[in-house]
């Protein structure tokens, strides 16, 4: 979970509801909490590989062959899963005081590390690490460490006390009751803002959320926040992570970069929004660096309150698989004739993914998740429907070939999203 500074004094509390006035009056500073679960190094693979194939978990919604997708995962290799969960490490909590952050931690997770680096770059953020009470994780000397028992609500409530913004960034391997516990504890601690574990597709598209194996879980977490009637929420919509997904196997963006193979979904020309991990981190830092409310009725500057109880849509590129292959050809100085190109209809590929998942082949999770975004009905292009917050958040334009080159370098050095993230 992460947090950052934004303004909001007692006078400004008159512009918001009673609940928010109570929260704004809690303390003069702004505080933020951030915790991320990241995988350990014990090398457990097999069924766990597909569990880690996406940025956000999908639990207890779709039923595959009469068995809940999450239920099925938790039944598979239960002994190994216990070891796996024991290795999960909470990244930390960002704490803001006097509208500035003065300390920071080197977070250990993939996206957590990037967010931490971006927060460090501002020169004003500090971090208090929230970690298990039995954890031996080493933190930087400037980091304040709060050890908690994740099964003890009081422990979590105490850790979240005084925080103003909580960002939850969970791995798909986190126990399925983790996020509800965190949300409930945040409410009891009076945390005014919560960003649920998301980094997902279009949350306003209910059909897409119900079919892509991860969106409905985010909607459930938002409902949990609403039901507590304490915190406001804001969710970051990024779609799939570009450089991560391109470097992964064909179940993701359809590419096998090392062996120069690609499976086009339909004709490969369906465009989707996709965001790089650095841009995701920049978006979070930009959001958390905004003041909460306008100074007065004449203030037209961007504030966090503009996204109160709303999704924030950001993106790096609007591209198709064809665009990705063209970029690879430019970076590798190759042409289509140097690559094995196949085609698969979107519905056939999506259904195949579900069938594989039902048959305990966890690669099907990634196949279904990613294919659903490439449906030719425009579901993956949220930019066309709502526009983007990139300009409001002052996010830089990125170069597609530069990020493609980064993916190629990841593949060449043996990077693997499951076992080797160096």
From TrEMBL:
Keywords assigned by UniProt, alphabetized: NADP, Oxidoreductase
Record bears the keyword RNA-binding: no
InterPro entries with a match to the protein in the record: NAD(P)-bd_dom, NAD(P)-bd_dom_sf, NmrA/Isoflavone_reductase-like
Ranges where the NAD(P)-binding domain occurs: 107-202
Any one GO molecular function term: oxidoreductase activity
Superkingdom, natural source: Eukaryota
Cross-referenced SUPFAM superfamilies: NAD(P)-binding Rossmann-fold domains
Family designation: Belongs to the NmrA-type oxidoreductase family. Isoflavone reductase subfamily.
Protein name: NAD(P)-binding domain-containing protein
């Amino acid at each position: 979970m992460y947090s950052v500074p934004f303004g909001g004094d007692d006078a400004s509390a008159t512009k918001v509801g009673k609940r928010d006035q109570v929260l704004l009056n809690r303390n003069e500073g702004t505080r933020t909490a951030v915790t991320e679960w990241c995988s350990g190094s014990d090398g457990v693979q097999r069924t766990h590989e597909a569990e880690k194939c996406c940025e956000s978990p999908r639990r207890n919604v779709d039923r595959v062959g009469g068995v809940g997708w999450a239920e099925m995962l938790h039944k598979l290799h239960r002994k190994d899963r216990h070891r796996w969960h024991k290795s999960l490490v909470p990244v930390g909590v960002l704490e803001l005081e006097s509208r500035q952050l003065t300390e920071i931690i080197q977070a250990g997770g993939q996206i957590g590390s990037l967010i931490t680096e971006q927060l460090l770059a501002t020169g004003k953020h500090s971090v208090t690490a929230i970690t298990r009470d039995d954890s031996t994780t080493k933190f930087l000397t400037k980091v304040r460490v709060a050890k908690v028992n994740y099964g003890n609500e009081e422990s979590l409530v105490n850790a979240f006390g005084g925080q103003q913004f909580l960002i939850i960034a969970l791995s798909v391997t986190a126990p399925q009751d983790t996020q509800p516990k965190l949300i409930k504890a945040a409410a009891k601690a009076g945390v005014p803002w919560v960003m649920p574990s998301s980094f997902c597709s279009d949350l306003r598209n209910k059909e897409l959320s119900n079919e892509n194996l991860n969106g409905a879980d985010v909607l459930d977490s938002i409902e949990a926040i609403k039901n507590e009637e304490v915190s406001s929420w804001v969710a970051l919509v990024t779609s799939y992570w570009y450089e991560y997904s391109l470097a992964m196997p064909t179940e993701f963006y359809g590419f096998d970069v090392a062996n120069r193979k690609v499976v086009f979904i339909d004709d490969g020309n369906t465009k989707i929004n996709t965001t790089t991990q650095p841009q995701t981190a920049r978006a979070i830092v930009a959001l958390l660096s905004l003041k909460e409310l306008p100074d007065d009725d004449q203030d037209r500057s961007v504030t966090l309150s503009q996204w109160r109880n709303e999704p924030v849509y950001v993106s790096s590129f609007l591209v198709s698989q064809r665009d990705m292959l063209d970029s690879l050809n430019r970076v590798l100085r190759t042409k289509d004739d140097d690559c094995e190109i196949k085609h698969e209809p979107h519905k056939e590929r999506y259904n195949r993914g579900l069938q594989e998942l039902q048959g305990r082949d966890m690669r099907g999770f990634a196949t279904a998740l990613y294919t659903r975004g490439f449906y030719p009905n425009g579901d993956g292009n949220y930019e066309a429907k709502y526009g983007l917050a990139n300009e409001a958040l002052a996010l830089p334009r990125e170069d597609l070939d530069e990020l493609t080159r980064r993916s190629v370098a990841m593949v060449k050095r043996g990077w693997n999203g499951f076992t080797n993230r160096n």
